[in-house]
Amino acid sequence: MSQGTSKKEQAHTTHTTISSPFLANPSRTNAHTSPWVTPTGDSEVLRKELRPSYGHKIEIVWGDKLGRKVIDCLDELNVKWTSLDIVRIATDDEPSPPVVLWIGVNPDTLSFSDGNTAAFKCLDLLRELDITDVDVEIRESVVWH
Question: For every one of its 145 residues, what pLDDT tens digit does the chain have, with 9 covering 90 and above?
């Protein structure tokens, strides 16, 4: 299981994406395979951008199977989620970044342990549908109506 995100990783993510989300502590299911490294030099200022996940298998199963299962899972775990997005999070030089199930949660509502559990349960739901190339990230997100 992943470690919690460091303050440096949270700050870097906040300042390098257009929408400036703050990563929730238990944010990434891929932390063990893609550990975050403190950027240096020019890489420290690389901007990230959100891209669509066109043509990925997750789009086929999201509306009729997976979306409802993810919502039910998060609700059963009492996660105070605000949004669910299927995106690619890319740096300028990435032609085809990995697909991410990006879960928004209300700020300061999710402990490391609970977030880690939720992220990996969502990852299990993906694997049940033979989707093995999507990561799960949890970020703080406030939705205004």
Answer: 344 455 555 444 443 444 444 455 545 566 555 555 566 665 555 677 888 888 899 999 999 889 999 999 999 999 999 999 999 988 777 788 889 999 999 988 988 889 889 999 999 999 999 999 999 999 888 888 7
β-pairing, 134-140 vs 99-105, is: parallel
For residue 73 the two structure tokens come to: 């899972």
Total-model pTM: 0.74
Dihedral sign for Cα 26, 27, 30, 36, please. Answer: negative
Query: Any idea what DSSP says for residue 114?
Result: H
- How many residues appear in the chain? 145
Is residue 9 a contact partner of residue 23, using CB atoms and an 8 Å limit? yes
Sequence-distant (6+) residues with CB within 8 A of 89 are 17, 48, 49, 50, 51, 97, 100, 102, 137
Q: Which residues of 53-68 are buried (b: 16+ CB within 10 A; e: fewer)?
A: beebbbeeebeeebee
- Output the six-digit token pair for 90: 């890319």
